[in-house]
Amino acid sequence: MRMASTMFADLSQEEEHDDSAEVTWEDQQRINTFSKLNTRLRSIEEKIQELKTEKEALDDISMELELADEDEPIMYRIGEAFIHMPHPRAVKRLEKDLAALNAELEKCTSSAEECEKQMKELKVILYAKFGRAINLDE
To answer: What is the DSSP letter of 78?
Structure first.
């Protein structure tokens, strides 16, 4: 019992008052929005990693196509299937796929930055009101 009273004595007055801030409906909406943005950001970050991995694979394929014999047909993956294509057509298809992938990567990066910006704004508001009584870190 003495240990418990020592722990309570160690709490400063400021820490005790942090818990006294009332959570309004608007505050709860901000907390919920922050949570949704955090979940969305994690999902976008996973998608960005997948796209970067795919981009690396396409860059490797590009190098391989530069070394390939132009008279030999190329096995090019479209979805889950591989299709024989003439070398020039495979190169054009690869350029088109790389452009689409880069556009998707840019879109995801932009979305991630927007989520981070909104989360930062919400953190400022929520930490200003609740201080150490709320934890918005991962």
So the answer is: E
